[in-house]
Every structure is written in structure tokens, then in C-alpha cells.
Write a structure and sequence with these properties.
Helix content is 79%, strand content 0%. It has 13 helices and no strands. It has helices at residues 3-22, 25-33, 39-60, 63-70, 80-101, 108-124, 131-163, 168-208, 223-238, 242-251, 257-276, 283-298, 305-336. Helix 2 runs antiparallel to helix 11 (257-276), helix 6 runs parallel beside helix 13 and helix 11 runs antiparallel to helix 12. The longest helix is centred in the middle third of the chain and has 41 residues, at 168-208.
Length: 337
Amino acid sequence: MNVALIVTIVLVMAVVFVNGWTDAPNAIATAVSTRVLRPNVAIYIAVVMNFLGALVMTIFNAQVAETISNIVSFDGAGNTSQIALAASLFAIVTWAVAAWWFGIPTSESHALIAGLTGAAMALGGLDAVNINEWWKVIIGLIVSTVFGLGGGYVITKIVIWIFRPINRLIANKFFTFGQAISAMAMAFLHGAQDGQKFMGVFMLTLYYNGLVDKTAGGFTIPIWVMILCSVTMGVGTSVGGMRIIKSVGMDMVKLEKFQGFSADLGAAITLFFSSLFGIPVSTTHTKTTAIMGAGAAKRLSSVDWSVVRDMVWAWVLTFPGCGLIAYFMSKLFMAIF
């Protein structure tokens, strides 16, 4: 029995589960805060749409998974590759659970990339980092910030202009329906982005245990891996996540329905095109900046900038924090095992 393989797969599933538990609620946070969807209904919708997003998008376009699987190299002597990879996953779970406990919507995508990078560097130094693929991470940070914030702001301004002459009751009926649809789109695209990232890690696990081959074009992801990761993320989402929903959708900005619709639509458009081009962006980062933009479009004072400050600090600290934990944990694991 390959104990290292079993442990690593369990850790991958734990990371996918925690992502559904802590990250997926961001997709439905605005729909809950504007009372378009009840929390339990929103979570059921997120479960289904996360599953479909991870499965369907990967079948048609697996570029995000390919980027993640190529971002670092865990090539090492003996079983050190498996040990370092397992240590990175353990570090990611630790970071994610701590963030959930404090209700901070830290990015699971950033934690994943930081953990993989820190562990790979513990094994092979800077040579273990694929700079060409890492550039996509930097691009993703810029895209999620600029287009998330800009999309939420611009769409909100357009909506205000278009619906100014329309009766408020009629407009609210439209935005109630529209935000339910846009929340579903957000949950679908969360699965498309984050589901693929973890499928990429799952394939690395199989590769370093000699169970699959890797070609110049990356891995061919089996359908059973897609289903396993999709189901696990959905189960994680079903556990809940009201702490994160409260931080993102309720504490930062008091949104009206038209603002919630605008934020969801802006974030969904950004995630869709990022997925098409294989750019690994953070769904948390994208959604949160879109909410900031939607709030600021009405008036700057409507945004609680102290909550924004805490979130930004969490984002800034994720890369060095999770990366260092993974680095030292890998060193420890390799010394012990």
C-alpha cells in the first residue's frame, strides 16, 4: 500500500473541501446580503453550480489546471517530491482554516499558489519555480483588481443611468431576478476557476506517484478526477460559510439589489474571460473588489474602508505567510520522513 499516495490524496481532497467551505460563499454573499436569496437556498445553489462549473469548464477548457500543474516543479530524489507536495497541501489547509476562523476572506487561490511555491523552493530553490507560468499569477492579480473593481463601478454607473426613469418597484423586481441569475453565474465560475486549480494539483499527485504521464501540453484530466474534485468542493460548500458571507456581503458595503447585481455581473465577466485564457485569478479577490466598485459608484463613504483594509492585509500576507509555512513544513517533513 502506497501510504504517501493515500496521505497526499487525502490532503488534496481536504484542500478542495476547505475551498468549497471557505471560498465558495463569496460567490453568493451579495445575493444573501441583499435578501434576494435566503442563506440555505443560496448555499444549495452554490453547491450545484460549483459542481457544474468545475466539471463542465474543465471538459471544454482546462487551461487553468494546466497553468497550476506547470507553475512549479517538485522533481527531487526518492520520495522527497511526494513529501514536499504533501507539506504544501498541509500548509494550505492550515492557512485556510485559520482565515475561516477569523472570518477573513483570504484567497484560497493565492494560498494554493503560495503553498506550492514555498514547498517547491524548499526542494529545489528558485530553479523549481517556472517564471513563465508565474507571470500569469501576477497578471491574474492585476486583472482581478482592475477589472473586478472597474467592472463593479462601471456596471453600477450604467445601471443607475439606464434605470433612473424606471419605477423603483419594477426595477427591484428585475434586479431580484437578475441577481439570482448572476449569483448562479458567479458560483459556476468559482467552480470553473478554483475547481481546475485543485484538479491541477491532483494530477501532480498522481504524476509524482508514477500513475500518469505528463506531456508538453500538460495532463489529460480523467473524468473521474473532475467528478471527484467537483463533488468534494460541492460538499464543502454545503457545510456553509456564513462567517465569510457576513464579512464580504454585509460588513464591507451595505448593498442595494442593483449594486449586488452589478458586482456579481462584473466579477462573473472577469472570471469567465480569465478562465478562457488560462489566467489563475482569485475568485475572492475578484468578487470583493467588484463589491467595492459597486459600493463606491454610489458614494465612496458607503464602503467601510476599515474592513477593506483588513482584507487587503490578508491578501498581502497570504503569499509570504502561506509560502513560508509551506517552505519550513516541507523542510521539517523531509527531515522526519
